[in-house]
Every structure is written in C-alpha cells, then in structure tokens.
Amino acid sequence: SLKFAGRRIQLQIIDAVEGKENPKFRHSLYPGTHIFVVCFSVAKPLSLRHVEEVWLPEIRSYAPNVPFILVGAQADLRSVGVIREMLASCGQRPVTTAEAAMVARRVGAVCYIETSPEVEKNVRKLINSAIASVLRVRGGDSSLCTIL
C-alpha cells in the first residue's frame, strides 16, 4: 500500500507479459482491473502499432470501460546511436514523444508518459497518474487500485 493525497491506497500491480503467449491466462486478469498501463518501446516502432492493432482492441473487448495510460518505455534508447542506426537500416526511426502523444489522444488514453528503466524515470508519475485516474472514475470512493 502507499499514501496518495492523504489516503492509504492498497495498490496491486499485475504484469501481464507472462500471458503474452497464453491469452486465456491474460483474459482472466482483466475482470477487476481498475486501470491498464499499456506499454510499447520507443525504440521499436512496431510495438506502438501493436498497441493500436492488438492490445487496445483486446482490452476494449474484455474491459470496455476501464481507462488506460499509454507508456513509452525505454525512452533512453531513443538517443542511442547504434539503435538509431539499426532502425535507419530498416527505414525506421524511434517513436518521438509528439508521435506517441498524438496516438494517445487519438485512442483515448488518460495520458501519455515516457519511462526509462535505467533511471526509473517517471515511474512515480506513472503510478500517481494511474491512482488519480482510478479515483477520478470512481468518484474518490476506492481504497484499492488494481493496475494491469
């Protein structure tokens, strides 16, 4: 649990990556989820397309009214020369903040946040945004926040 806006919130974070190859397992996690954190890698443009074409349709199918936050992970890799060169050799480039923010608005995300595991950049902001979104949707009437 953690303290948020003067209240003690019981936070449950579930990582659905384990269910990537097991849809039944993944789908079993959706009921009771208060907010989804949908991630892609800014260094892998195809992963953002998968968000729009695979993950969001699935989430909307199983949990149509649950809000979600779009997260651009590995933001630190955007400026790594070897990553940029590798993408350029395939006619691609890293996803820019502006591009991802535009996608977030278009698909109805609560917000767009970039993170970097190397420095834990914006992880606290992500968790706070998730909790605030859940409390806003539930009219402040919740002491439990399940994030998938």
TrEMBL record:
User: InterPro entries from the entry?
Assistant: P-loop_NTPase (IPR027417), Small_GTPase (IPR001806), Small_GTPase_Rho (IPR003578)
GO terms, molecular function? GTP binding; GTPase activity
Spell out the protein name for this chain: Uncharacterized protein
Keywords in alphabetical order:
GTP-binding, Nucleotide-binding
Tell me the SUPFAM superfamilies matching this sequence.
P-loop containing nucleoside triphosphate hydrolases (SSF52540)
Instruction: Report the superkingdom from the record.
Output: Eukaryota
Tell whether GTP-binding is among the UniProt keywords: yes
Q: Name one GO biological process term.
A: small GTPase-mediated signal transduction
Database matches in SMART domains: RHO
Q: Name one Pfam family in it.
A: Ras
Q: Which organism is it from?
A: Candidula unifasciata
**PROSITE patterns from the UniProt entry:** RAB (PS51419), RAS (PS51421), RHO (PS51420)
